[in-house]
Amino acid sequence: MRKLGITELKRLTPEAYRESGKIPLIVVLDHVRSLNNVGSVFRTADAFRVEALYLCGITAQPPHAEIHKTALGAEDTVDWLYFKDTLEAVDRLKREGYTVCAVEQAVGSAMLDKLTLDRGKKYAVIFGNEVKGVQQQVIDRCDLCIEIPQYGTKHSLNVSVTAGIVIWNLFNELRVEN
Q1: Nearest to residue 47, comparing CAs of 39, 56, 55?
Q2: What are the tens digits of pLDDT across the range 127-144?
Q3: Which of 1, 22, 46, 103 is 20 to 30 Å from 159 at the Cα level?
């Protein structure tokens, strides 16, 4: 095996990316504190052609050097909006016909490895604050909660790691083969 060089990867230009088809998924960050986590989620959203990112509450917004450090320019390719209140974002998503899912450990959560999505629907996934998770009042307005099964002694993952796992899984469920 030989490692591929950067020019062999055939990455889209930012312009081509903006024109490319996206999966019907919006990612919502509910009061995420760490700018590095925000940047990482931008980069993951770019990698899997997420429709948009909604940044809510205390979640920082581009342009910001700390976001750029981990986003590596994805903050310029992924569409994003800011909402002062996460509930405003949820209400907008519901009006626009999205099935809204909190990623949280909750009574009745759907386990990610058992989740099947309808390719004819649009989805939004909400990731919460690094300490407090998704706000209960936000969960109360969601259509379902998604949980990542965990088998070790810890019962939580970093929010950017969680986003990577969930977005990858939803990408595989929602993408249309070209």
Answers
A1: 39
A2: 999 999 999 999 999 999
A3: 22
